[in-house]
Write a structure and sequence with these properties.
alpha+beta, four-stranded antiparallel β-sheet, three-stranded mixed β-sheet, 204 residues, 4 helices, Immunoglobulin-like
Length: 204
């Protein structure tokens, strides 16, 4: 094979190999976020008024087994869709800030993150998502932690409540943390006596 022909053949071979094997740094690096895209259709059924209702109690479990409640604490009802499931799995079930355990700025000493800090951060991120606002429902618990939701459409939901210091007199009754529950509601169903807690009592 003459030299010009070998040169031409080598160039063609290089182009073929380049098309089969991407260059370093192209399409091999993982994406920064695997969160599913927002899809309005996933939420449409949750915007309507339904005939179902939910009642229950939101509390944390103290080491001695007492229920830690907080009067007036918000209780959120969140539709389960691929979009909110990603939020729940990454920021509630395994809180986003639990991996590092601390937060710090360039000029400050690292400050330990508490479970309540992580939960507060997770809920704040959810509430800042304006597209979710028409589909979220929020009520407040009474002094014993009991709550009510009415006119709920059928579907699957997260019930989430951040308890930031209980109302008890003892130190162990002033813990903070996130209570949650996953529930599926049928059309017109009236679900009662729901237990929304931090799972330490083995109730979820």
């Amino acid at each position: 094979m003459r030299y010009p022909d070998r040169l031409r053949f080598g160039f063609v071979l290089f182009l073929l190999l380049g098309s089969l094997c991407p260059l370093s740094g192209q399409a091999l690096e993982p994406t920064s976020s695997n969160q599913p895209p927002w899809n309005e259709k996933d939420f449409f059924a949750y915007k309507q008024k339904g005939r179902g209702s939910l009642t229950g109690q939101a509390f944390l479990s103290s080491p001695s087994g007492k229920a830690i409640t907080q009067a007036g604490t918000p209780v959120h009802l969140i539709p389960i869709t691929p979009y909110t499931r990603y939020w729940f799995e990454h920021q509630v079930k395994s809180t986003a800030c639990s991996g590092t355990g601390t937060s710090a700025s360039a000029e400050s000493t690292p400050t330990p993150h508490t479970p309540a800090d992580c939960a507060h951060e997770a809920l704040t991120r959810l509430q800042m998502e304006k597209r979710l606002a028409p589909y979220l429902r929020t009520t407040r618990a009474n002094p014993t932690g009991h709550f009510w939701f009415t006119k709920i459409p059928a579907g699957r939901y997260y019930i989430v409540s951040l308890i930031e210091g209980g109302s008890g007199t003892h130190q162990e009754e002033r813990q903070s943390g996130l209570a949650w529950l996953v529930i599926e509601l049928e059309a017109g169903e009236k679900a009662t006596n729901l237990v929304v807690t931090d799972c330490k009592a083995g109730l979820c």
